Amino acid sequence: MASVELRGIAKSFGRTTALADVSFTVADGSFFCLLGPSGAGKTTTLKTIAGLAEPDQGTVLFDGVDVGDVEPTHRNVAMCFESYALYPQHNVRDNLASPLRSPRHRRPEAEVVKRVTEVATTLGIDHLLDRKVGALSNGQRQRVALGRVLVRPADAYLLDEPLTHLDAKLRASMRAELKLIARQDGTTTVYVTHDYVEALSLGERIGVLNEGRVIQVGTPQEIWEQPATVFVAQAFGKPRMVLLPGAVVDDPAGGRFFRDVSGSLRAPLPEGADVAVGTQLQAGFRPRDARVLGPDAAVPDGHVAVRGRVAVTELIGAQIEVSVEVDGTLLAVVGDRARLGQVAEGDRVTVVVPAGRVLMFEHGPEGARIGP
Ligand SMILES: Nc1ncnc2c1ncn2[C@@H]1O[C@H](COP(=O)(O)OP(=O)(O)OP(=O)(O)O)[C@@H](O)[C@H]1O
């Protein structure tokens, strides 16, 4: 086991910049999720850690030691790619056992059998041990590929979207298993995903990557409650965080506040924020934090309100999603069917949100959050 640190990694392929500036540290024995959209540079980051991609700039350190000159085979990391490399003509048992039979990591046969059985049982593929890999479904193959990584002790596991080909139910149970395995073994794990639910549920810390840059690193709670930018805020949560454009205005009673372009939302500025009058900002809140009231409802204490018209309602099981149009911006609210079920398309409504749940961001898709 080892800590893994990346310092200022840059990597280009021809004219494509895959990594512009990537720095983060994964503590020894911890589970780190790297989240980002397609093309963000997640796989290239993993390959750089594994030594399969040589950075143009920057340093990779294991336990504080620069591993720039250490060959991939000597880095003692186990990596699982999304496009898994298995031996199709061999059965599952031999595929799982092969890392433990290689000259470098050879183990006594009794230990190999024990370990293979354990891993196969954990991943729910023990009934497939005698089956040829070529005769498996994609989801089964993906679990074999993951098993090949987990079967041998390593300083770090590097997992690239290892659950994408599984159905939702299996993915959820594999997530739980993975969490258990990583905790029990205490192996440093870097887990790449573009699924925010996976990142939030698995990661002790999460690094958010976009266009080859680390935008924020933090615990799931920090990332959720204090997103560094609009990009991070909108990368987590479905429906996405709602953003209303507006500007800072003078409060005749003293101080300043935020007013959205429709003029109906007035929200306090974050404590300590020193933003000039006229500065364009965006107010953001999570659809789950909002409630829909009647058009003339009184605004509850400690809440802010915005008025609009219901554009669409959509039933999602016991929940209902209501899209409210406010001066050209669609604003999603999610809640219980029982609570929101009375709302009909075309209704005039008041959307209320606890003032403490409203975040302020600078203008633009990369706008930084203002406040502590
Ligand atoms: N071998 C390569 N040759 C040329 N360009 C590459 C190569 N590998 C990656 N890239 C480019 O670098 C960028 C980052 O790619 P990378 O595979 O790291 O992204 P990713 O976040 O893992 O994406 P995905 O989620 O789609 O797998 C992309 O623009 C990609 O096209």
TrEMBL record:
The ABC transporter domain, residue ranges: 4-236
Domain of life: Bacteria
GO cellular component term, pick one: ATP-binding cassette (ABC) transporter complex, substrate-binding subunit-containing
Signal sequence extent: none
Transmembrane segments: none
Keywords: ATP-binding, Cell membrane, Membrane, Nucleotide-binding, Sugar transport, Translocase, Transport
Pfam families given in the database record: ABC_tran
GO molecular function: ABC-type transporter activity; ATP binding; ATP hydrolysis activity
SMART domains referenced in this protein's UniProt entry, alphabetically: AAA (SM00382)
Gene3D superfamilies, A to Z: 2.40.50.100, Nucleic acid-binding proteins, P-loop containing nucleotide triphosphate hydrolases
UniProt protein name: ABC-type sugar transport system, ATPase component
